[in-house]
């Protein structure tokens, strides 16, 4: 897909943009009157008193303020759940799922959401929801915002156009996008169908991970995060605004598009990132480093170094480690791990884990390479090896990830997943 849009650059920058010349006030935020008869509105996704380094807010200059809408009424989206998951007990089993089929009836992004797991507590602003989406039509004059958390979109197939209050982002597999908590948006399809994953971050907004001893460069670079330029909709007619609030869905009628922001300035805005720009750091001597070296972004918790969510990728890269078992080692981890696959294969699995699928290894559940992978890697000639045509990701969290009833009972769950380790045999020679 040729990206025809232009973008602003820089993670968390104080951006400014206007769709009409002079719409953005200069030297102040709230003049008595704004050019073009616009209204001033502040969008804050952190508390007013949050420290400057973590404070996120944007000033909108829009055709109508957000209060101009109908009254909210309950609306049903029966497939979406919000943490904590209490409808079914969480087993310690290792779990894996086949890809969810694309819908065969008209389904937009919101209708096509289903929750596979969640953790934490949205009301306490900790944890996340993990959803799958599948769609075959655009939202058009239907709009949505999530008051429970910011949304991380991870496409697996199909191309999207995200229309937001701040402007437009084009998105395709291999890219991700983040929409701030409370930001209104609509999803249009640029292909016949689309499928992917959504992480609903109830906690602190995502930040780029620290580099530590790596120094000032590497991993995800700030300059590669793209933000939209202002692009407003002056559309009148029958519209509807959906929202997710405190775990429930609501609908309000509107007589105009809520995406009517003509100019904006601030640092709380949607952004996208091309995962191929991640600068992979790895060993050039021996041993397999911790997978934390592949962390793109993190939502911190109240305990330093232990994340609410880490977003980790396993992209194309070279493996050169000497005298080393190169796939991930067998391990048990206090952190819980949800994995998805965007493209290709994952180096610890030969069968069963396919693009669009998912796996869940919860806190202290043992996991690692299947038997065939272990035998192959243990006996391979260790020349430099290129891992190509692959992109897996992991959502790792300090909180137990609770699968929904749907996830445990769906036919997509691979009931024989545990059997992939059946071939592991005893090699002990003592």
Structural class computed from helices and strand pairing: mainly beta
What is the number of E strands?
29
CATH superfamily of the largest domain: Jelly Rolls
CA-CA gap between termini: 58 Å
* Domains, number: 2
Taking all Cα atoms into account, the compactness measure Rg is 22 Å
* Gross morphology: globular
Strands of the biggest beta sheet: in what spatial order? 1-17-21-13-10-15-8-7-29
Under CATH, the topology of the largest domain can be stated as: Jelly Rolls
Mind describing the biggest β-sheet? 9 strands, antiparallel
Q: Which CATH class of the largest domain?
A: Mainly Beta
Q: Kindly state the mean pLDDT as a whole number?
A: 96
Query: What proportion of the residues form beta strands (DSSP E)?
Result: 35-45%
Helix content: under 10%
Low-pLDDT parts are: none
Give a written overview of the molecule.
This protein is mostly beta strands and 430 residues long. It has two domains: 72-258 and 269-275, Jelly Rolls; 278-417, Jelly Rolls (Sandwich). 3% of the residues lie in helices and 37% in strands. Strands 1-17-21-13-10-15-8-7-29 form a nine-stranded antiparallel beta sheet. β18 (236-245) and β19 form a beta hairpin. The longest helix is centred in the C-terminal third of the chain and has 9 residues, at 371-379. The model has no long low-confidence stretch (mean pLDDT 96).
Notable features of this structure?
mainly beta; Jelly Rolls; nine-stranded antiparallel beta sheet; 430 residues; globular; 37% strand; 2 domains; 3% helix; seven-stranded antiparallel beta sheet
